[in-house]
């Protein structure tokens, strides 16, 4: 145990004498660990475990170039009326579905927790080919007027 304390004291003396070398070493180690983590994350998500969608290489996001508006000439979202028109007049894509973000309060009414949620059209689960782990996902019948609301929890939120 005594040799450990001597080694620690010697290490601290060396660090205090050569601070620039120590800081350079720590910075190089941090950059190396960060770079390795980024490379692994990208490789894991892109090559090993890509999105589990059926025909995931055919899923696209539509971007609108609205040159009549000066404030936001490019946007990747539709107004509801625009989306319904696009869906009715679409002759390019096989299918389309809509998704929009919404904040939902979840939990005990006395202390609800704010949760970022997505509202999707009834065909999203079928189009992406994602089965529910438990229960059922959203179905096209759930989008009909008068249908009961359906809430699907992700595994992480559950």
List the helices and strands and how they pair.
Layout: H1 2-17, H2 19-48, E1 64-65, E2 74-75, H3 80-89, E3 99-106, E4 113-120, H4 124-128
Antiparallel strand pairs: 1-2, 3-4
Short description:
By secondary structure, this protein is an alpha+beta fold.
Rounded to the nearest angstrom, the radius of gyration is 26 Å
Q: Describe the largest sheet.
A: 2 strands, antiparallel
Helix content: 25-40%
Please count the helical segments: 4
H/E topology pattern:
HHEEHEEH
Percent strand:
5-15%
Broad shape: elongated
Structural features, described:
The chain has helices at 2-17, 19-48, 80-89, 124-128; strands at 64-65, 74-75, 99-106, 113-120. A hairpin with an 8-residue loop joins strand 1 (64-65) and strand 2. It has 158 residues and is of the alpha+beta class. The chain contains 4 helices and 4 strands, in the order H-H-E-E-H-E-E-H. The strands form 2 sheets. Strands 1-2 form a two-stranded antiparallel sheet. It has a two-stranded antiparallel sheet with strand order 3-4.
Protein traits:
alpha+beta; 2 domains; 158 residues; single chain; two-stranded antiparallel sheet
